[in-house]
Design a protein that fits this description.
The complex is a heterodimer of chains A (about 350) and B (about 80). Chain A is an alpha/beta fold. Chain A has 2 domains: about 200 residues, 3-Layer(aba) Sandwich (Rossmann fold); about 100 residues, no CATH class. Chain A contains 12 helices and 11 strands. In chain A, the strands form 2 sheets. A 6-stranded antiparallel sheet of chain A has the order 6-7-9-8-10-11, with helices on one face. In chain A, strand 4, helix 6 and strand 5 form a beta-alpha-beta unit. Chain B has about 80 residues and is an alpha+beta fold. Chain B has a single domain, classed as Translation Initiation Factor IF3, CATH 3.30.110. Helix content of chain B is about 30%, strand content about 35%. In chain B, strand 3 and strand 4 form a beta hairpin. Chain B starts with 5 loop residues before the first strand and ends with a strand. Classes of the chains: A alpha/beta (about 350), B alpha+beta (about 80). Chains A and B meet through helix 2, helix 3 and strand 3 of A and helix 1 and helix 2 of B.
């Protein structure tokens, strides 16, 4: 009896990787999954923060997919290593700060290291030629295979028949005739294949599963780098950019204004790292201040926060300023009008 | 004999970090040993049991205690 071949599949939590795994499982391959956590993944965080999202199921789609497929899933924290991918992408960015091609090369490269260490035979992804404008094009998919070091150990079952045969196909571990020739952005072939497998529940992330593809998020990250004078970030930065209104009325400081109770609760956890403003005379949002503020700056900041409070129509709103060491002082201001909170201040 | 669980403080971490911490700690433990993970992200109550189910570990208990979510995991066979 021949030895069962083993594949490691990149699992995003979406439909394509789910289908790709099912296709190779049907050929008797033992599959395990890997999911890479960059910090920018849309999964999870915002569900936990925003109160309005708390009613939504809090399932992690990668774990859920693995369970549906009956495979083990290894979740790998690559937050630190990913900085170099984001800050120095060899192939540049997409429409926003999304280094999709470098990202895919990095992840497939990590998968290659993993299969070498664990004695697995090849790698599976759910990529489809022509589906993504940067990393899943006819001319860039070979770049991923080459620069990740995976070369012909990288099998893309959903579009394999549009690509040269890989080692698993040439060696007969996989029957190429039972792979697919999907291409382009049309999702109907995937949906039909899902139906044929009896899969009727799957995540459909709009625009991918990464905050870096989001224009607003990328703009906030670019603003952060510009204000700091250096392109660097930490996990707290990644998190805080996902939360609240970010308003920069002056180059040297910005405000992070909670938009709802859940965000306010989350920002509470940062009060020892940042100065903050809370409204006293009226209900209002907790606001963190990132940067040093003069007395004039503080009045401006308080006027902005008051504009987002229940006292926005009042002649005066009282706020409490607390510095990162817990020292408090009262600030009384007239709320700014919506027109005075300039659009260009919104990061 | 059941020994006292090891403790894992995952408070302040948002998913999937609690499950990653559990995964990494469990890799260093032996079959039958127990780990008590204390989390503040309610998602941990779903993610840690899901991770256990697919990787062959057992959830002994999971409960909410004053805004904290405590999951006790028993390590399965490798």
């Amino acid at each position: 009896m021949s030895e069962v071949k083993k594949a490691l599949a990149l699992i995003s939590g979406g439909l394509d990787s789910m289908l790709a795994v099912r296709v190779v499982q049907q050929q008797g391959i033992h599959v395990e999954g890997v999911n890479f956590f960059t910090g920018f993944c849309v999964e999870g965080h915002t569900h936990a923060i925003r109160k309005k999202d708390r009613a939504r199921p809090k399932r992690n789609n990668a774990l859920w997919v693995a369970e549906q497929l009956g495979i083990k899933l290894h979740i790998v924290d690559i937050v630190e290593e990913y900085k170099d991918v984001l800050l120095n992408p060899r192939y540049g960015y997409g429409q926003n700060l999304n280094p999709c091609l470098d990202c895919k090369i990095f992840m497939v490269g990590k998968a290659r290291e993993w299969i070498e260490q664990k004695g697995f035979d090849f790698i599976v992804t759910g990529e489809v030629v022509g589906q993504r404008p940067m990393s899943q094009r006819k001319d860039t998919m070979p770049v991923v295979a080459k620069h990740s070091g995976a070369d012909d150990l990288l099998l893309r079952p959903l579009c394999a028949r549009n690509l040269p045969p890989t080692l698993p196909e040439r060696e007969g571990w996989i029957d190429r005739g039972k792979l697919y020739d999907f291409s382009g952005r049309n999702r109907k072939p995937q949906m039909a294949l899902a139906a044929s497998f009896g899969i009727d529940d799957y995540a459909q992330p709009a625009g991918g599963c990464c905050f870096l593809t989001d224009a607003q998020y990328s703009a906030k990250l670019a603003d952060l780098w510009q204000a700091r004078g250096s392109r660097d970030y930490g996990m707290d930065d990644i998190m805080l950019l996902k939360v609240g209104r970010h308003i920069r009325p002056r180059p040297h400081f910005k405000l992070i204004v909670a938009r709802e109770e859940g965000e306010g609760n989350f920002l509470q956890g940062y009060k020892r790292q940042f100065a903050s403003l809370t409204t006293v005379s009226h209900g209002g949002p907790l606001t963190l201040i990132d940067g040093d503020t003069s007395d004039d700056d503080l009045k401006l900041a308080a006027g902005i926060v008051a504009r987002y409070s229940q006292g926005r129509q009042a002649d005066e709103v009282e706020l409490l300023h607390t510095d990162a060491r817990g020292r408090e002082r009262s600030v009384k201001v007239k709320p700014l009008s919506p027109i005075e909170v300039k659009q260009e201040w919104h990061a | 004999m059941i020994t006292e669980p090891e403790q894992l403080d995952a408070r302040g971490l948002l998913c999937p970090m609690p499950v990653i911490r559990v995964q990494n700690r469990v890799e260093e433990m032996k079959s039958g040993e127990r780990l008590r993970a204390i989390c503040t992200d309610p998602g941990a109550l779903n993610d840690i049991p899901a991770w256990c189910r697919i990787n062959g570990h057992k959830v002994v208990s999971s409960e909410e205690r004053q805004g904290e979510y405590v999951v006790v995991v028993e390590v399965g066979e490798a």
